[in-house]
Amino acid sequence: MDNSSPILSTSTVLLLLVAFYGFTLYMAMRIRRRKENADAYMTAGNGVGFGIAAASMTATWIWASSMYASATSGYTYGISGPIHYGLWGAFMILFIYPFGRRIRQVAPKAHTLAEVMRARHGSSSQLLLAGSNVVGSLISLMSNLVAGGALIALFSPLSFVQGVLAVATGVLLYTFWSGFRASALTDFMQVMVMMLLVGIIIPIIFFSAGFPSAFETGAGNLTAEQSNFFSSEAFMHQGAPYIAAVLAYAIGNQTIAQRLFAVREDLIKPTFITATIGYAGMVIGVGMIGVLALYLGMEPLDGDSNNIIPQMAADYLPTVLVALFLIMIIGALSSTADSDLSALSSIVMADIYGQNIASRGKARPKVMLFVGRVTMIVATTAAVVLAGLQLDILDMLVFVGALWGALVFPVIASFYWEKITNLSFVVAVLSALAVFIPVRFDWVPLEITLFAFTIDVLAAVGVGVVLGLMAFGFFGLRAGKITGVLATLLTLPFALGSLHEYTVLSASLVAYSVSTLIVLAMCLRNNRSFDFSTVQQRVGNFDDDDAAQDEKPGIEPVGAPAGAAGKEK
């Protein structure tokens, strides 16, 4: 690829962007209501149907970073790379639904997980979860703008900054008007486009590059580990850290929780199963482009592995399909960027204004809508500024996911265990973060045997926590306990003396284990029990009865009776 002569002209790229974002803006304006409703702006009235919900979940989980990181994994680790990236990411979508059904049972009309944590514990737990989501969503939004700016700069004479501004403006325009409703409805369109183009573009790239003979002639470009489908290097550096990270994403991420609260309660299981299959197929398929690049011996432009997919597209696609490829990636990153904006607006609307700034039970829906829209503008501006840093996308994904790992056990336990307290929640999360950060950034002197040994033991416990939670979600408490204990005992012999060498993985696992051990230590002897039925009385719609009846959900005509107007006892 000759970067000195862009494939697409400035006018062509601008026309594509105007057409894409113009159509999405038109769709958003079509669902805008004369009497705006704060609850519909955040969760579309809790009545989104199967098709929209499944497409929205798939599109939100598939973003530019997913595609780029999957291809990078394929280029770095060989054919097992995209499998580890896409398969475990898909399974994490699947693991949401058993916990999701319990969450909706406890708080059917909630808008954010943090809002439920306030009803369960208090404002400190709420703000911890809300704060982590603000940081995570800002990083996610920034990553998508970086990917969009880099892609536009690579294919056209437009600069990186101009590309970032174009994408940021387009996403903000159509999401600003209708919030989550616009995000979910445009997600449906975007995922349909992605599926169509992936089915066309990937086969063309493969056959243009000489598939299948390229996999025979290029085998010499691979190392022994890259040639091994069961590569331990790929699992320890890619698969295992991603299992830990995306489980945290599934539980702690407001963009996922928002869709959980929006979909009809009886459709949670089929929605997440469908999204699991859709995500796996598309992300693993795109990741194979990285594998092909490895076999071809291609060197990433400027040494940046994020350029692998654009390079392959530029080298092996005709100009017309390059233009369609650009729209595919722009659609992928836009579907997640608008979800980040919707998540951020919901957090500020419900958690910061609705339950902490406004007097208890006196939040005004019109003010909430104003606050939500201002939040989108501020968040977009901040993300544009941060995009100039051009940080490594995959590193940021794993870091944020691991950061959320400190919250996973306390959050899940809060929906099942009557004994967990506000103090234990806060102490566990802060302690886990205090241990995670020095381990993650190699501030711990591992040459001292005691420190290395401690990290290995905690990481082994973290393996038990992760696998135990997964088993608990599907098979119940007894299965979860047995799986957790066995996984820890089986991991210990392999972990001691070696697991601390895998910094990303061990830091993630330590975050899980420390938060879990502290919660258990502080709550096992607690004799007080929480009544989960009170959550529904404390978490509900912010709009009054009349407004709720005037405003039907903006996506599917399913009624949404008003709840407790966000009041607390």
Alpha-carbon distance between the termini? 64 Å
- Low-confidence segments, given as residue ranges, are 545-569
* Portion in beta strands: under 5%
Rg, alpha carbons: 23 Å
Q: How confident is the prediction overall: mean pLDDT? A: 85
Report the helical percentage: over 70%
H/E series: HHHHHHHHHHHHHHHHHHHHHHHH
Query: How does the helix and strand content classify structurally?
Result: mainly alpha
What is the multimeric organization of the chains shown? single chain
- Rough shape? globular
Largest sheet features: none
User: How many β-strand stretches?
Assistant: 0
By DSSP (H or I, 4+ residues per run), the number of helices equals: 24
Report on this model:
By secondary structure, this protein is an all-alpha fold. It has a domain at 15-198 and 225-283 and 318-391. Helices cover 75% and strands 0% of the residues. It is built from 24 helices and no strands. It has helices at 10-30, 38-43, 50-61, 64-77, 80-106, 113-120, 123-155, 160-178, 180-208, 214-217, 224-227, 232-252, 254-262, 268-296, 308-316, 319-357, 365-387, 393-416, 422-440, 449-475, 477-495, 503-523, 533-538, 545-550. The protein is globular and about 70 Å long. The termini are far apart. Residues 545-569 have low confidence and may be disordered. Keywords: Cell membrane, Ion transport, Membrane, Sodium, Sodium transport, Symport, Transmembrane, Transmembrane helix, Transport. Its main location: membrane.
